[in-house]
Amino acid sequence: MNMKNPLLEFTDKGIYCSVAKVYLDPWRAVDKAIISHGHADHSRWGHKQYITHHRNVPIISHRLGEINVTGKEWGETFSINNVKFSLHPAGHIIGSSQVRVEHKGEVWVFTGDYKTENDGISTPYEPIKCHTFITECTFGLPAFKWTPQQEVFENINQWWEENKSEGKTSILFGYSLGKAQRLLKYLDTDIGKIYTHGAIENMTQVLRPLVDFPETTLITKETKKEELLGNIVLAPPSAHGSTWIRKMVPYVTASASGWMTFRGARRRRAIDKGFVLSDHCDWQGLLSSIEATGAEKIICTHGYTEIFSRFLREQGYDARTEETQYGDEEDNTVPDETATLEKQTS
């Protein structure tokens, strides 16, 4: 590979394929953008043309409004200026894709965000052979090791049942796109009713044609707190501490996030209970995914990039880091504990 003219390059607008004149998940307005998934840091407003998986079309149309968008199938090859592109399941959220780029026998794969555990609602992650692999490493520390989701959901439903027995409302925080629907899918409606914050209800309604979700009830001004007692409320993290939530006393709160691995994350956010559940890869998931690609060159983007790329180099990979403007939609980091874990990995 000629590093002076790489197939994909990192620019101030985003990841750019100069041969095709197309960007992948650009963070500034461009003419043509291939979008990996619907989270706001990867699908931004203002591009003249959007290309994405067809399951992501209703998501970004809901979030961005009137846009010029084309939907593609998994594995469907489309050429732009003789560069071949195709989308492959990333397993992160519904409609999330990896982007495969091929030109003159050279293959790159951009993961966007991804996870290897099959959550039952997203199309499961599919390893793609390539020469260069652009990977996130949001949870790129050995301390992150996920418990199988079935066990996590059993714990969540048990928590809800215990709260009900004490006459309290259960409030469960999760990001409005992806995490909230994953939680919703596995809540046990034999325990009680599922109430939703407006942001979660609106997105869930967009996704209902794609997934069989349990029934939900939107909380409105007319909803009385007596109706909520013993039931569960799904809300975005931003609702915590708001006047909206203070009307629900007595309640118990919980958050579902990979960051709940940190004991201090729950304490600092004044959350009663933390469930470790992430829509990203854990440490082992990242390593196994990279190995499965057969790639020799690894580019680490958002997350623990320096630590993770250094570890990969020690394993014999040609690994480096690149700056992007992607974040973590479930970011609940606790600085002092993060620093401690980084020292342990060094």
From TrEMBL:
Keywords: Hydrolase. It is an enzyme of class 3 (hydrolase). One of its GO terms (molecular function) is RNA endonuclease activity. Its EC number is 3.-.-.-. The keyword Translocase does not apply. The keyword Cytoplasm does not apply. Residues 321-346 are annotated as: Disordered. Residues 325-334 have a biased composition (Acidic residues). This is Metallo-beta-lactamase superfamily protein. It comes from Zobellia galactanivorans (strain DSM 12802 / CCUG 47099 / CIP 106680 / NCIMB 13871 / Dsij).
